[in-house]
Write a structure and sequence with these properties.
heterodimer, A: mainly alpha, 81% helix, B: 287 residues, six-stranded mixed sheet, four-stranded antiparallel sheet, 9 helices
Chain lengths: 273, 287
């Protein structure tokens, strides 16, 4: 039965108000539980672990001083990985048997062996053939090449996600295959790929901890070093965890910003004609 | 218009030079713009095109009719080598490219194909506008990066054609902000902006909401009437009847019947054409 118009709009307003109230309650609940978990952890630390303010005030700055190196290694590695992935993806999509074979071999090998092994290879194995590299170079090389292999597949998928009609329309206008790729396909693939690069960067921040194994004095190396010496690994590892966590939260926020901006850039995409 | 002269119902040989054919607006003595001969296409075991040929003179509008799967889209896409035919040859405005099924020829052939494509503008069923470029950028992209035209000149040309399709006011919009009909009209302007010798339309209204078909057909009819050379693969019988100088009917990869629309559509000689068209008639399409 149709109700009078006035009554209907009252009902709609009441429903909307109720929805908003439930939403607010849910968010409050979420925050309370989160704060509760954090409080429990802190309580546990304070009660059962010998928290020594003097030790922590000494250890924390020492560990934190590795953050620069962690970020630096990650930034350089993601740059190297992006470059390699670009060439890798072009190779994987190439009709040239040579390019395709090289790219496929690269992806298969670097995804098929442990990252830690690759890292140790740079640091421990290469010196046997006379190549001695700085731990920093080893870390960037190993992380960059390993992530490059994973990102190759990602880039390839991004390029393939651009509808085939785009390339067709471009070449039908007389563009060469390379012009069509550069001007039409790549810019569209880029928008698909960028958020994924952000994800990988955040993952790399944490995988860079492996570089502690080749004596790079980043966050984890420092935490282990000072923790072992004074038999306080529990405290130092918790500090390191906190540093990584904060870094991850910060860069995830940056990434969300970038994504939002990209989405705003093609906001027009969502409007249907 | 006057092109649909009463003489056209006569059974003029379809491959006759149009100057000798009644009712077609073609300069006497002109050479064909496009000639495709013996186009064959195999997809594996599937024989899609069986030696189809077509000749189109300047100023002509040719419609290709045929049921779905008859090969008419594949044929159209062979004309600019989006589909590489297994055999045959295509010549557009003096640029001639032959099939090269064993890929014996290299870069030179690719260069000739590009020359050929620059002379043949294509309009797709799915529009295929570039979503990351604005309307005007869509139109000047190829003139700028294929012909190396100065931006100012390219924009002037593009604006002229956008005006022609009635969308100059959408110059700086992005394709996603346009309706389907508007997108297809931009796609037509984009093709025109390369100033091609012939326009190829691949079922240009099939992906459109029925209410938007009219605006696209109107633009196409205007182009036909002002003497653009066009080849149109379509299911729009009324359009073919009104705008086409000649109609090709394709059946199983070959042309079963060719002639003026009054002949092919209204009085088909070939039983296959007749059967196909009878469906339209039962729907009461033709006046």
């Amino acid at each position: 039965m149709a109700k009078p118009l006035g009554q209907q709009s009252e009902l709609a307003a009441a429903v909307a108000k109720n929805d908003r109230r439930r939403e607010r309650a849910w968010r409050l609940h979420f925050r309370l539980v989160s704060a509760g978990i954090l409080a429990l952890i802190l309580l546990f630390i304070i009660t059962y672990l010998n928290v020594e303010a003097t030790f922590i005030s000494r250890a924390a700055p020492f560990i934190l001083a590795g953050a620069g190196l962690t970020i630096g290694v990650s930034l350089l590695s993601i740059t190297l990985a992006t470059l390699l992935a670009t060439f890798g993806a072009l190779g994987r999509l190439s009709r040239s048997a040579t390019a395709n074979a090289i790219a496929s071999f690269y992806v298969s090998f670097f995804r098929g062996t442990p990252l830690l092994l690759q890292l140790l290879f740079w640091y421990l194995a290469l010196p046997q053939v006379g190549i001695v590299l700085d731990p920093f170079v080893c870390a960037v090389g190993a992380l960059g090449m390993n992530y490059g292999a994973y990102m190759t597949e990602l880039f390839r998928a991004g390029i393939q996600a651009v509808p085939g009609g785009q390339r067709e329309a471009a070449v039908a206008l007389g563009m060469s295959e390379s012009t069509a790729f550069r001007r039409i396909v790549a810019p569209q693939a880029f928008r698909i790929i960028v958020p994924a690069i952000g994800n990988d960067f955040v993952a790399m921040l944490k995988d860079s901890a492996l570089a502690s194994a080749v004596t790079l004095q980043e966050i984890l190396w420092r935490a282990q070093n000072i923790g072992r010496k004074e038999f306080k690994s529990l405290q130092t590892l918790l500090i390191a965890a906190a540093v990584y966590w904060v870094l991850t939260i910060a860069f995830t926020a940056v990434q969300n910003r970038v994504e939002a901006r990209l989405a705003a850039g093609d906001r027009h995409k969502e409007v249907k004609g | 218009m006057s092109r649909t002269s009463d003489l056209r119902g006569a059974t003029a040989p379809h491959e006759l030079h149009p100057a000798e054919r009644p009712g077609v607006l073609v300069k006497p003595g002109a050479d064909p713009v496009l000639r495709a001969t013996g186009i064959e296409k195999w997809f594996g075991e599937n024989h899609v095109l069986r030696g189809a040929s077509i000749t189109v003179w300047p100023g002509e509008t040719v419609c290709i009719l045929g049921r779905s799967g008859s090969g008419k889209s594949t044929f159209l896409r062979s004309l600019n080598f989006l589909e590489d035919p297994t055999d045959g040859r295509v010549e557009i405005d003096g640029v001639s490219v032959a099939a090269d099924p064993f890929r014996r020829e290299g870069k030179q052939r690719l260069a000739r194909i590009r020359e050929l494509r620059m002379r043949a503008g294509m309009v797709f069923q799915e529009f295929n506008l570039f979503p990351h470029l604005s309307v005007i950028e869509n139109c000047i992209e190829a003139p700028l990066h294929v012909k190396g035209m100065p931006r100012k000149e390219a924009e002037e040309i593009a604006e002229r054609y956008l005006d022609k399709v009635g969308l100059l006011d959408k110059r700086d919009e992005y394709p996603s902000r346009l309706s389907g009909g508007q997108r297809q009209r931009v796609a037509i302007a984009r093709a025109l902006s390369m100033q091609p010798k012939v326009l190829l339309f691949d079922e240009p209204t099939s992906a459109l909401d029925p209410t938007l078909v009219g605006e696209v057909l109107k633009v196409m009819a205007d182009l036909a009437h002002e003497g653009r050379t066009m080849i149109v693969v379509t299911h729009e019988m009324d359009f073919a009847h009104e705008a086409a100088d000649r109609v090709y009917y394709m059946d199983q990869g070959e042309f079963a019947e060719v002639g003026p629309p009054e002949q092919v559509i209204d009085a088909p000689q070939d039983p296959r054409t007749a059967k196909f068209l009878s469906r339209f008639r039962t729907l009461g399409g033709k006046k």
